[in-house]
Amino acid sequence: MGRTNVTLDGTLTCSRWILDDLQRHLSSSDVVLLGNQETPDGTSLVLVLDEVTPRALAHLASVAGDGRRRAVVVMTDRAGMAPGDGWRLLENGADDVVVWGPGLEDQLPDRLHRWAALAELLACDTVRHELVGSSPRWLIALTRLVEAARFSTTPLLVTGESGTGKELAARLVHHLDQRVVRGRLVVVDCTTVVPGLSGSEFFGHEKGAFTGAHAARDGAFAAAHGGTLFLDEVGELPLPLQAELLRVVQEGTYKRVGGNDWKHTTFRLVCATNRDLLEEVEGGRFRADLYHRIAVSTVALPPLRDRPDDILPLFEHFLHVVHGSVLGVDSEVADLLRGRSYPGNVRDLRQLALRVLTRHVGSGPITVGDVPEEERPRMRPVPLPRSPADGEDDPVPPPPSPPVPARGWAESDLDAVIGSALDRGVRYDDIHAAVRTSARRVALQRAGGNQKRAAEMLGLTPRALQKQRQRAATADGAP
Predict the structure, then answer these.
(1) Is there a single domain that holds both residue 270 and residue 348?
(2) What is the residue-wise DSSP string for 365-424?
(3) pLDDT digits (tens, 9 = 90+) for 58-101
(4) How far is CA 243 from CA 157, 237, 291, in A?
């Protein structure tokens, strides 16, 4: 793969003999050792430690969290390792921990090449431009994705709240997986699977297999052959279909609906969910054997609230993608973006960028006037000063009042709605039911459809929320 750039960091106390051995073993290979200050993106950083101390852990956390896209590897001597030190090094940002010892020199160049390949992939244009962000938690998830795509063939389970970028992660895995360059990425949204027709969607069908099957048709398993099959929200699959999927994952064979011949397929399986699948397994809603098959490798995508430093770069990225040029963002708008909540995570932020662009004119920076009215912070109006009487000094205008929360419970929004309903003759019971219905709907939207989180927002148990929704649905079809 060409030369491998590696930076050796010996700024802390380290064993001189380890550094000497490293340089001696690598001098005849195509590994290029850089100085401590030369640490560009795409370069592996090997941190050489004599022992694992609090100072060493702090230094590791600093270099691993500096926002650069690279692999950070810790190399140390067994004598300097106490029980649990390996786990502490990984928790503080190391991508790998290598204990120096006999036999390591033979495999060291290959391991360095792998680290460098990982660093180069993290810094490549495809990854940098499609998966924007430099926050530590995001880079950890991104590193795991790239590792799974390039160095593994096992099924991958991507978890995360709605809108965190799970489908984008699947597309990245498909793009970087060298074994599927000739195959397609087939996406199946499991929330839209119709129980009676699910078999045909996955397995395909023969002509005449059921009413309306006028011709034979391939399903998702055939379409994904030689490529990647992405099952979005896999936790929504009905149990009978889970059993059928397990057979295909285990054996790579299936039959079309209405067919007798076994067909063979091979694909990279990537699944995504916003549910806790282990909790679903315990509740009997998801097969344990299928879970262990699809969760060989797992990557958890962080919600946007856990990566606040990425909000502004992501917003500017969406502006650039849609507008075609780089637009700046006014400081007041930037403050608004950082202080806003995003129940739908990155998807919410993208929608906000699109709405801002519908108001924006020209190629100048985004200003407060471009922000849709419903997104602006509410401010109490400043009273106009009265005209001074003759001979009186001009009155000093009062200082502006502090901003009022946009959704404060004591505001008159709800009073106005209820007053309007009363004016139209709506009765108390109907108003009460409508408010409860709206509260449930908004909570579910903010929770990304996750009933457990919605119940927590409302101060209810999941069972109580489910019962309320069932009673409302029985009464009038409300959520």
Answers:
(1) no
(2) -B-GGGS-GGGSPEEPPPPPPPPPPTTSPPPPPPPPPPEEPTT-TTSSHHHHHHHHHHHT
(3) 888 887 776 666 677 787 776 667 888 888 888 887 877 877 76
(4) 18, 10, 11
Q: Is 11 strand, coil or helix? A: coil
Residue 392 lies in a domain: no
Average pLDDT over residues 316-342: 85
Q: What is the DSSP string of 51-73?
A: S--HHHHHHHHHHHTSS--S-EE
Nearest to 315 by CA among 289, 285, 347, 349: 349
**Nearest to 170, CA basis, from 297, 77, 65, 22:** 297
Count helices and strands (H / E) in the chain.
19, 14
**Strand pairing partners for 45?**
7, 72
The pLDDT tens digits of the residues spanning 384-431 come to: 555 555 445 555 555 554 444 444 444 445 666 677 777 777 777 777
pLDDT at 167 over 70: yes
- In this structure, the answer to whether residues 53 and 142 fall within a common structural domain is no
**Residues 81 and 155 both lie in one domain:** no
pTM of the model: 0.68
Does 251 fall in a domain?
yes
